[in-house]
Amino acid sequence: MQRIVLLSIIIIISINEYAQQLRIGLFNELNTKSVVFSVVNCSYLMVCDNRAIQTFRQGQNLFITKEGDSLRCIGLNIDFGLFLKIKLNAMADSAVFSLRPVDPKANIRYYDDNLELVINLGKMQTINIVDIDKYLAGVVESEGGLKAFPEYYKTQTILCRTYTLNHLDKHIEEDFNLCDGTHCQAYNGHNSGNTDILKAAFETRGLVITDDDTTLITAAFHSNCGGETENASKVWLINKSYLKAIQDPYCQNQKNFHWENKIPFEQWKKYLIDNGFHIKAGISQSFFNFTQYSRRQYYRLGKDSISFKKIRDDFGYHSAFFSIEVKNDNVEIHGRGYGHGVGLCQEGAMQMAKLGYNFREIIQFYYQVVNITDVKNVPFNKNPSLKFIIK
Fold it and tell me: Whose CA is closest to 11, among 133, 162, 143?
């Protein structure tokens, strides 16, 4: 862990020039009552109710627990007392801390920069106040894994930055910008597994994607499109000029390109009847076969139909891009892709990066008629979320 932190310092030193911070709600799905804070690297100054209390150095811990509408802070065999707000401020750009919920229990995670704790609406909130690009490096590690090529990491960073800046007000009523779960973007903290990811965030600093009206795009992505992306209008009933179906040869033969499932024929028939299908007795099983050579919106039998999206949701399939074949009293599901299919195909983008395409070429391939520009050129009046960033 410390070795990775040291490797990151050279990159982090240059970050102040364009410093923007986010407030990220941590463990937001838990009703956290107690946590342990530990200094992993450098030092932290504890500020309680706007009063500096003590500096904590590498290896030192604090136990913080909820008591009524206050927070009790205990460390170094000292009970520091009850406070309304506790802030642990990093004393250097390369500072890293760990946080471990103990009530309820959850896995320890590592974070960059600062931590704020407060009681809000009867709940302990733990908020990571973090440089936007350190945050993005953590998100990209969570979303894209550790073994891709640098141009893919640049691509994914720009998508995640665009999403982030387009949703800075998503949790504003709770006094933070975004949470760390899939409700916003998966964020497991400090980028520790591959320093190329933090480097990609630094090298694309400030870059976002806009449509031809200088509005931040809906930066949709998914794991694998199965060889063909989908129109946003067919998935979310929104029409975006840049989210149109394309043929994608790059994701073929990748991990999530094919999948299969099987269910009993009688279960399938009952499912269709329960969803309004009129099925005559004695009908041939082959009547139920349906092949999606390209993406289709509905599974049809005669005059009856049901959306593939609903089937996917009801059965928990990887995608809505699948064919149906009845064999030996079983329904065999032959699927392609993983995810909703809209926007960038991650496994396709990874393969493009491997083949030597740069991040601009990858983005322009998956999103139609868009611009890659510095966020400083994006007007606030068309992107009101931008006013919620911390300068």
Answer: 133
Q: In sequence order, what are the beta bridge partners of 324?
A: 290, 333
- Which among 130, 149, 184 is the end of a domain? 130
Pairing of strands 61-67, 34-41: antiparallel
Round to whole Å and give the CA distance between 195 and 5: 9
Of the pLDDT bands very low, low, confident and very high (cuts 50, 70, 90), residue 12 is very low
Q: For the whole model, what pTM was predicted?
A: 0.89
Q: Residue 391's pLDDT band (boundaries 50, 70, 90)? A: low
The range of the structural domain enclosing residue 328 comes to 258-336
Burial class (CB in 10 A: 0-12, 13-18, 19+), 380: exposed
Domain-located, residue 43: yes
Confidence of residue 210 (pLDDT cuts 50, 70, 90): very high
Q: By the 8 A CB rule, do 209 and 162 touch?
A: yes
What is the b/e burial string over 110-144, where b = at least 16 CB atoms within 10 angstroms of the residue's CB?
bbbbbbbbbbeeeebbbbbbbbbbbbbbbbbbbbb
Length of the chain: 391
A 10 A CB-CB count for 381 gives 7
CATH number of the domain within which 77 lies: 2.60.200
The stretch 37-60 carries a mean pLDDT of: 96
Number of structural domains (the chain) is 2
pLDDT in tens, 17-26: 445 899 999 9
